[in-house]
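User: Hey, quick favor. My workstation is busy. Could you predict this chain's structure for me?
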Amino acid sequence: MARNPRILIVTPEITYLPPGMGNMANLSAKAGGLADVSASLVQCLFNRGADVHVALPHFRRIFRIESAQLQDTELRMYKKLIPDSRIHLAQDRAFFYSDRIYGSYHAGGTSTALAFQREVINNIVPRVQPDLIHCNDWMTGLVPAMARRMGIGCLFTLHNIHTQRLTLAQIEDKGIDAAEFWDYLFYSWPPHNYEESRTGNPVDLLASGIFAAHFINTVSPTFLDEIAEGRHGFIPENVRYEVAQKKAAGCACGILNAPDPAFNPGSDPLIAVRYEADTHAQAKRQNKTALQQRLGLLPDASAPLFFWPSRLDPTQKGCTLLTDILYEVVSTYWAANLQLAVVANGAHQRYFREIARFHDFLDRVAVHDFDEPLSHQGYAAADFVLMPSLFEPCGLPQMIGCLYGTLPVAHDTGGLHDTVRHLDLAANTGNGFVFRDYDTGGLRWAIDEAMAFHGLPAETRAAQVARVMKESAATFTHDRTAKEYVTLYERMLERPLINPY
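Assistant: No problem, here it is.
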């Protein structure tokens, strides 16, 4: 950037902070992909010399557990670091003793989100005096209204479409003086005045963040288009309208996330055999047999192995499509010994278990609770990663799969559309198998395409997988993501601040 503006990133989740940013460099508070994205952005901005500050809740119990897990020598090293004033931990007993963060979006999460925003608005922003504030998701949805009132540029990132609705009275009861910026919030119906709205006209936190922010971004370009164009009926109309208005005003864009650098088959300590693009073929066979042994699958290094890596959420992730055709798929490819490894939690997990038990598929279909090391091994062992999501703001498993030479089977939506192209051997392009119609027929067609690829000569498959791995390693990087955010920050700082349309 031409100058070095002070940037405050307000995030309820983070995986790590870069060494050199203080003695809390090892902290970790994560409920989902937002934590990884926040961490990578801070890391890249810090490495580029930006005057970046971070505001996040002080999850003392979580951070204490993380610190205790460090080796003594590492812990002593971190304690020697000079505390950096750019780490701002919001203080409140609402999250001091918590052992989990915002993952469930229930009332407790709302209370914690309000406590966090109170500290950001009342204490952290006045102390930091930022030139630009970058907020993330509904848990920071009040901050953009405060920023607009103060004349501070604000970027609001939508990682998903979850929201909460609260009255001004409920917000103020948590110590936030919403009267200062009440007219920059988004209400259930147009407000007449402050007093009329205070107790009976709920504020939508996600829509407020979108409405008040100077710029917004989603975590993929296609998901931005899908919201603005109303392609998903489950997206609230107020969110769709506000996103569409921002896009029409030239104040919205999509910036793809990127996987954590720890997902690298050449250096991953959690997989059985490490490998590079040019050595993947034999190494993946070895990883496959190691995973099969761990999960009780029939040992066969040549078996086509499909991997399910994401939470088993029947509303979003498309797991119902797979269970509807699981018996048919396994039976059709019985002679080829098709196998499925599910390493994920969620409401739909029991259906996979019941199908495997009922049809005696226990050596073909393995179901295991989510486990980080096992998940890494799944990427290294499998041939294909399943991502049949109904909608996907970004998605990381399809990118991670490509890095590990595990080709995605994906529905053509959101971030999947932006990162997965159907494999075309003649053109030497593509990195997976894409189906357009969200139904069992579409998923079955894509699985058949994957199986046709698996039936090709080994050297043909190896050449394509090596190409995909190399292209993905060059494309799916945090540095690319951070550069796009830096460009957006520059664009925001160059534009005059105006009131909402």
